[in-house]
Amino acid sequence: MQIGILYSRIRKDEKLLLTELRERGHDVTKVDVRKHQFGLHDTTAPVDDLDIVVDRCLATSRSLYATRFIESYGVPVVNSPETAEICADKAKNSLALAEAGVPTPETKVAFTKESAMDAIESFGYPCVLKPVVGSWGRLMAKIDSRSAAEAILEHKATLGHYEHKVFYVQEFVEKPGRDIRVVATDGEPVAAMTRSSEHWLTNAAKGGETKEFELDDEALELVEKASDAVGGGLLGVDLMETGDSYTVHEVNHTVEFKALNGTTDVDVPAAVVDWLESKAAEKTATEALA
Predict the structure, then answer these.
(1) Which of 3-7, 200-204, 256-260, 262-266 has the least mean pLDDT?
(2) How far apart are CA 214 and CA 191, in angstroms?
(3) Strand 188-196 to strand 178-185: parallel, antiparallel, or no bridges (unpaired)?
(4) Distances (CA, A) of 159 to 131, 164, 216
(5) From CA 223, how far away is CA 238, in angstroms rounded?
């Protein structure tokens, strides 16, 4: 298999993936998107002979544009730019989940401080204010009072970037001190873990303690439905427990898996490469029929 890895920085996740690919004898082309140009008909990036390209760009903007251009050259990309566009934007993510009938926290989007304040007041306190684009729990705020809301909204309104003027307000979900991260390939779970913390943010990137988690039938169904809702691919599906059920708060398209790989007995990079091999085989079979 001739496989390309789009990247701007090689992290532990990418190292795990590269090691597994090379151990299986696959030819890997690393494409640093910072060093190439992408034109309407061709690119300086060496992608012409690749069977498949895996997007591992750290920056969302680079990911969205590079994958769109590469797909236009007829090279299969995972995850697809359509999936990336939905997952990279929390508002689009929430809409896709809701439209697919996946339980997800109640959410409102507003475009002025005044309208955002009305949304916050309609939820009551606490509620959550998030940036529409962002990861690792950055710039998220649990709002406990009107005075805190006024201060945070004022800060966001003066930050300058247009995305900070899209106010994404969400109900606060009383979870049991943890959430659940599932890495899945086209809706099929590879492995799952809980991320626990005394802080309301339980992300592993924020220091959350991880532990392997066994998915029940309801969670398995939700992971599949959430994956389908955003177009499938190699995804991180995040769930929260709500009593005896679950809610899916988001789906991630450039999912990190190093923490999961160190938590579970499942060889996560091997499972990901198994899936990549199957996607490349689908392309070969399609071309043979053409």
Answers:
(1) 200-204
(2) 8
(3) antiparallel
(4) 12, 7, 43
(5) 9
Q: For residue 77, which phi and psi values (nearest 5 degrees)?
A: -125, 135
- pLDDT tens profile 22-76: 999 999 999 999 999 999 999 999 999 999 999 999 888 899 999 999 999 999 9
Tokens of 174: 């009383």
What does the DSSP assignment read for the chain? -EEEEEESS--HHHHHHHHHHHHTT-EEEEEEGGG--B-SS-BSSS-TT-SEEEE--SSHHHHHHHHHHHHHTT--EES-HHHHHHHHSHHHHHHHHHHTT-----EEEESSHHHHHHHHHHH-SSEEEE-SS--TTTT-EEE-SHHHHHHHHHHHHHS--GGGGSEEEEEPP--SSEEEEEEEETTEEEEEEEEE-SSS---GGGTPEEEE----HHHHHHHHHHHHHHT-SEEEEEEEEETTEEEEEEEESS---HHHHHHSSS-HHHHHHHHHHHHHHHHHHHHHH-
Distance, CA of 290 to CA of 288 (rounded, Å): 6
| pLDDT tens digits, one per residue of 142-190 | 999 999 999 999 888 887 677 778 999 999 998 888 999 999 999 999 9
pLDDT at 140 over 90: no
Positive/negative CA dihedral, 206, 207, 209, 214: positive
Flag whether pLDDT at 136 surpasses 60: no
CA distances to 16, 237, 251, 268 from 262, in Å: 11, 18, 21, 9
Distance CA 85, CA 65 (A): 10
Closest of 246, 252, 204, 203 to residue 227, by C-alpha = 252
